[in-house]
Design brief:
The two termini are 34 Å apart. Helix 5 packs parallel to helix 6, helix 7 packs parallel to helix 9 and helix 9 crosses helix 11. Helices cover 40% and strands 17% of the residues. The model has no long low-confidence stretch (mean pLDDT 97). It has a domain of 236 residues: 3-Layer(aba) Sandwich (Rossmann fold). The strands form four sheets. The protein has a seven-stranded parallel beta sheet, with helices on both faces. It has a three-stranded mixed beta sheet with strand order 12-9-14. It has a two-stranded parallel ribbon with strand order 7-10. By secondary structure, it is α/β, with parallel strands linked by helices. The structure holds nicotinamide-adenine-dinucleotide and uridine-5'-diphosphate-glucose. Nicotinamide-adenine-dinucleotide binds next to helix 1, strand 2, helix 5, strand 5 and strand 7. Its EC number is 5.1.3.2.
Amino acid sequence: MHVLVTGGAGYIGSHTCLHLLQSGMDVTVIDNFCNSSPEALNRVQALSGRSLHAVQGDVRDAALLDQVFQRGQAIDAVIHFAGLKAVGESVAEPTRYYDNNVAGSLSVIQAMDRASVSTLIFSSTATVYGDPSSEDLPLRETAPCGFTLSPYATSKWMVERCLADLQLAQPHWRIACLRYFNPVGAHHSGRIGENPRGIPNNLVPYISQVALGMREKVSVYGNDYATPDGTGVRDYIHVMDLAEGHGATLEYLGKQPQGTLLTLNLGTGQGASVLDVINTFSAACGRPIPFQVVARRPGDVPVLCADATLANQLLNWQATRSLSQMCHDSWHWQTHNPQGYDT
Ligand SMILES: NC(=O)c1ccc[n+]([C@@H]2O[C@H](COP(=O)([O-])OP(=O)(O)OC[C@H]3O[C@@H](n4cnc5c(N)ncnc54)[C@H](O)[C@@H]3O)[C@@H](O)[C@H]2O)c1
Ligand SMILES: O=c1ccn([C@@H]2O[C@H](COP(=O)(O)OP(=O)(O)O[C@H]3O[C@H](CO)[C@@H](O)[C@H](O)[C@H]3O)[C@@H](O)[C@H]2O)c(=O)[nH]1
């Protein structure tokens, strides 16, 4: 099987490319490196002992996509990771987010159509659930969606809706929208991992930099939520579990008849609070993690936690790595690559 991975040099993309190569699949990547480094792909190839074909470019470049689809061995499926993901940034720059995430996805879908490739995995997000009511937790895929709290979340929901309409109009497609919860951790080798530019937005990369002494303390955004310890609860999932979930989805889609549209939560089903994560990380790295409680971050919700039963059943897949493993692997990556791929 030959898979085109858009955004394959990014955090989730690089781990998924490694898993696909190790599973014997052929991989082509298109990435404009706006939030990643070609070095990630060098390391993926070194770790797997196999090569992939990398194309530098933007998924909104229709002519380039046509070239990629026409070149060499036929592409069987696309995993579309390319997109922008910073929730706060999307509030400040909505048109950039809609352009990259919505127009970029349309460009990929239309190029697939021209090339008669109709198997697609789309990177969606738990943020499509907005601020769920407590009776909807843990979240099943049927929980209300679309009351989104940021342009980022809306952009992902718009693409999910577009794919549902496409599937109705052209029932030969096989599509999976995967709603990721909170991916953290890194490959156990410490060779690939998350590579935030500037000040990290996300909790675990920030804690990692505090543990390493690069930043003074973690700001805990609010301790007055209706959660057991008052801090926000999320469903953290190891990035390698997520990568394996993509492999399992490709396998599942390959066995389905034409006309499949699948929407799945990829999470562990276990919620962890901000303080749980700080304490678990501190145990993993053997250092105290200084923190200070500050005001809530606008747009944050109290709890996002998956019911991943459907993915477990359909894909014969389950997230197996613990929060402790996630923190351990993030720390391993951070200590070996304090400046990310720029080291
Ligand atoms: N990391 C998360 O917490 C999370 C959670 C839910 C969903 N997602 C989604 O999963 C996908 C991958 O996330 P990630 O964490 O690996 O992000 P990432 O930023 O590390 O990776 C995205 C990759 O896409 C590339 N890219 C962006 N726009 C592009 C374009 N127009 N053309 C070509 N390449 C482009 C970037 O250079 C980067 O390599 C994204 O779509 C993101 O929205 C991420
Ligand atoms: O410095 C920090 C950073 C975060 N948090 C808290 O930690 C939790 C997790 O925050 P973060 O790591 O920023 O993740 P989310 O805001 O949950 O969003 C992530 O997870 C979503 C899926 O659930 C993705 O779609 C988003 O792209 C991704 O940023 C939240 O309660 C935050 O309030 C802090 O207290 N301090």
